[in-house]
Structures are given as structure tokens and as C-alpha cells.
Amino acid sequence: MKIAISGKGGVGKTTLAAGLARLYAEKGQRVIAIDADPDANLAVALGATVEQAVGCTPLSQMDDLIEERTGARPGRGGMFRLNPDVSDVVDRCAMKVGGVTLLRMGTVERGGSGCMCSEGTFLKAFMSHLLIERDEVAILDMEAGIEHLGRGTAENVDIFVVVVEPTARSVQTARAVRELATDIGVVRVVAVGNKVRDVSDEAFLRDSLGEVPLVGTIPESEAVRSADRGGRSPYGTDQVFTNALERIAKALEQEADAS
Ligand SMILES: Nc1ncnc2c1ncn2[C@@H]1O[C@H](COP(=O)(O)OP(=O)(O)O)[C@@H](O)[C@H]1O
Ligand SMILES: [Mg+2]
Prior knowledge:
The chain contains 11 helices and 8 strands. 43% of the residues lie in helices and 17% in strands. It has 259 residues and is α/β, with parallel strands linked by helices. It has helices spanning 13-26, 42-46, 50-54, 63-70, 89-93, 118-133, 151-154, 168-183, 199-208, 222-229, 239-258, and strands at residues 2-6, 31-35, 95-97, 100-104, 137-141, 159-164, 189-196, 214-219. The protein has a single domain, classed as 3-Layer(aba) Sandwich (Rossmann fold), CATH 3.40.50.300. The structure holds adenosine-5'-diphosphate and magnesium ion.
């Protein structure tokens, strides 16, 4: 199962991505978590220390490897291969945190519709390899925008989760993400409500999300908040949070089977 997680900044994408990744790993699945947000903090949310997290070099900055595989060093221009071998990238570059295999994508300076450069090509090849050739559960923690997710990649995501808070703006973003996702070929787009305080929050989400099905909700949690402040993983800090994750994981499996 390949799950992409998007939504407005601060809604809880990383919290959900880390929680699901740890949960699936605990259930004995092999899980690869991809930090695809330039503002990367998935490592700490999975349980890494800050020192360990900075040791995880983003793929986009692996200049030697990119040069070896594409024939061109990032930033230098020139001719490069469009189909670099990336089959060993997980083994060479990943970090293991909380039973989860973690990789950081990093960013590529891009103009217009995409970067015709060696590092952009390398990342794209890796994404295809991850989504098409590998059989682990893959969880992508993405930035709010999804424009960078090309059609080739988007089509291979089984389920696209938009995290929403019970606010009008966050729902607005969810609907926009759904439109974009549909445009680039994503089949299943669902919402997860986060920081939900009561039934009226949940009712608001259900009513305002329109065609985006709400597959689950996570309550506002003091334990999750304080785990974040203390630089710890939110996973396992709060039984209510774990139970919510369990229900969401199950709903996502059903959605993925249906697509
Ligand atoms: N259910 C929750 N209850 C309380 N705080 C939460 C909850 N989910 C996320 N948060 C907090 O909200 C902030 C943003 O969460 P984060 O997962 O980093 O969002 P994003 O990745 O979407 O930017 C963090 O401080 C996080 O601890
Ligand atoms: Mg985040």
C-alpha cells in the first residue's frame, strides 16, 4: 500500500505519517516513510533524536551518488541519464527509526513545471522505484502543495490522505488538493480530521468536506502536543491517539482495496 499525506501547514501531516508508519511497523509490516516536506521533521516524529535526524542527508543533496548514477553533478548542468539506477538507494541511504525505514527527499530548485536537472531526475526515478517496484508499505509525508508530484508518480499512489483541522480554511485546502490530485491521476482522495474536540467539530468536517470522504478523526491531544514539545514521537504517548490511528489504518486498507 502506498499512502501520500498532504494538507495545509500545521494540520498534523507529520504526526499522522509518523503514527501510521510506527503502527504498521509494529504490526509486522515493512514500512518505508518518506519525508518529502522541505521543512523536514518526520525523523523526530518517528522517534529519532535531533542529532540522529540531522545525520539523515536528503537524497537531493547526495551529489556524489547523483553524479555517479546520472552522469552529471547537481548544479553543474550538462547531459545526464534519464533512467538512473536507483535500486540500491534504500539500502544505501535510509535510516532506521522506530522500526521504520526513513528517507528524506530534500528539495530541488525548480522553475516552471519541473526541474530538468540531474537531481530532479534522480528523485523522480527513486519515487517511481519506490511506488512501482518495491513492496513495502510506503508513507509519504508531503508539503501542502502537491504540484511537484508529477503524474507518473501520482498515478501510483494508492490512496491520497488530506489531513484537515475543523476550520474552514483547512477544508478549503482539502478541496483544492482533491481537485489537483484528481487532475494528475490520483484515484482515491480521502480526508482525516485532526485536532477534533467534539461532535460538532466532526459534524462540521463531514458537512463541509463535500465529496472528500472523512475516513477517520484524531482527537485534540495534550499528550501529542507535549511529545512534540519534548522532541519525542507522539506514537504510543496516548491510548486515544493509538486507537484513532488503528481505526484510520483499517479504513485506509479498505479504501486501498476498493480502488
Ligand atoms: N491530535 C493532535 N492533538 C494535539 N496537537 C497535535 C495533534 N496533531 C498534531 N498536533 C500538533 O500540531 C503541530 C503540527 O503538527 P504536524 O504534524 O507537524 O503538522 P504538519 O506536518 O501538517 O505541518 C505540532 O505541534 C503537533 O504536535
Ligand atoms: Mg510536517
